[in-house]
Target: Subtilisin-like protease SBT1.3
Amino acid sequence: MAKTPMKIMSCFILITHLLSITLFSANAQFVKKTYLVQMDKAAMPKTFSNHLDWYSSTVNSALSTTSLESSDMENEEERIIYSYQNAFHGVAAKLSQEEAERLEDQEGVVAIFPERKYQLHTTRSPGFLGLEPLSKGTNSIFSENLDNDVIVGVLDTGIWPESESFNDTGMKPVPSHWKGACEIGRGFTKQHCNKKIVGARVFYHGYEAAIGKINESREYKSPRDQDGHGTHTAATVAGSVVHGANLLGYAYGTARGMAPGARVAAYKVCWIGGCFSSDILSAMDKAVADGVNVLSISLGGAVSSYSHDSISIAAFGAMEAGVFISCSAGNAGPSPASLANVSPWITTVGASTMDRDFPAQVKLGNGKNLSGASLYKGPSIVSAEKQYPLVYLGGNSSGALNPKAMCLEGTLDPQVVKGKIVICERGISPRVQKGHVVKDAGGVGMILTNTETNGEELVADCHLLPAVAIGEKDGKDLKNYVLTNKNATATLSFLGTRLGIRPSPVVAAFSSRGPNFLSLEVLKPDLVAPGVNILAAWSEDVGPSGLAIDQRRAKHPQWSPAAIKSALMTTAYVVDNTMKPLKDASNAEKPSSPYDHGAGHINPIKALDPGLVYDIKPQDYFDFLCTQNLTPNQLSVFGKYANRSCAHSLASPGDLNYPAISLVFSENKSISVMTVHRTVTNVGPDVSTYHVLVSVFKGASVKVEPETLNFTRKYQKLSYKVTFTTKTRQTQPEFGDLVWNDDVHSVRSPIVITWLSSLV
Model:
């Protein structure tokens, strides 16, 4: 077999965590370094019962005579520090240069790569977002000396305090403004709180009132997390640096949260039976009193009116207190208008992919290869060198739900699937649960196919048996192959971790979409951020099989929540790493729109210096509510505590000083001209001049007045208006941008123009 050049094959190396050992010695050829030895798995002699024994024997055969005869000889386990049997086949071993050269000539050795020294790698999202220090002495947006006093309240399933992500070594004392508590219960004591986990509370009274008493033998009636979701989210937001983090060998590197110096306050509001609004409301209320600076909420449900949405109501109060609220957009995509948490005072974050992937492959008996994704790491019950029978229990018809095709519990006949790779369609049951059903029925592997709902988005899961997820198009080809070939076969292989995936980012298919039918004038989601295949801390009470949406916030502590949101939105980008418009994983044929990605993909570094911000005061939000046809009683849920009343400062909902412009022409065709007003605050240089650029639309002409903004001091506010005049009413919404540019900053606001008949 031809050997693969080292510089090409190095991209397949999984263990980027290892460091080269550099010893200054007069006799360098005897200095042992770490080498990666790639082996031809299929070349294993029949005299060996397993690959590890063969790998060990091969390495041992190349050791120098001096090493073998030495009284302090390292045994083969000490020489071999890693073995690879799925994605990358071979070992990592400590060898001298002479031994490495000798080993390279051994039968079955494909290539040998000297270990390279890398800078610390995150499990990807902070680096992908540009949050790592650029060089020694430079700070990232969330460096430890910037966010030490920031406390992030996480409303979720609790926390697993033993995780290294919550180690408080080296942290300064808890900020004096913190008033929270560390509540105790089964599996959770006062000692589980520290300078990282500054508080932990539980909320269950609403749950028990609706469901009944919590079964304490099944779950912890304490802040301890038995689910994993809360631990994962908390670590993603503010986890401490953890070197050598990985998931069963995947994504090896240094894990850290977006703000590793920030503190975490865990508010457990979700239980086995769900999350109840009374508990959520109580938690948010307590969090504000405790002194959190940020609320991270990955919860939601069907959209209801502002006055009937407890999260919206509580978030309004938190915003008034200066708390920045970040909520997930939801996982109901790609259906239109599937958003949750759409209130304008909430930063609504959709999900996108990163430039990291966990590739896997399906090789069919007809020679065709299908690309997929997987985080499977377990017994090699499926050999990449052997073809296995395929079985698909669905039919040719599409659209109708087929329980057998979706591998639902109790639908698979062991006599049909035993010893075979089973094709399962996504839907109804969790992805990993389908693999469990296949395994229980005797299947040796699973190919999980996307449906029209999921499109081409690939989500890697930590399956219980060898399993690969593939896209909708390949899924159709695969099912056709099986239905037209009685002897259809396949095998599965797992290729580890790859970086630099192009194109990226891509809007996740599951990410909930706009428009925001509650208020079309408020564009939602606000932006997108990495939320696919995020690896972070997890509860040790449950196996690794879920996903979470990470949350973001900017650094300026004196800014209002609206100013922070504005900075994130106006600096977001809308092109991927191929410099083409962001794509939508649910439909690779077309780019995503602001209904999918909002203002764009988050760019935290640029958000540090946005130039201008669109600030919104609590009274402004209240005046927005006054345009929403709410009754006085309904308005009172927002204005009660501050004794607010309608100041009628907004001529229309579209005049809310939002960083995006969403214009709605009514069905009344006599209304052909509409004007919206905006005010920007200078947070850049004292003296600056901004010029406006605006997109050209088919259906309307656009005029901005004035076209130039001249600032003479920092924090100065200047206003402008945008007039839209209908030329030809369009049947579909139109999208564009308005950008204020001073040659240093580009302050971009997305524009959506909707003619209501286009939505009917």
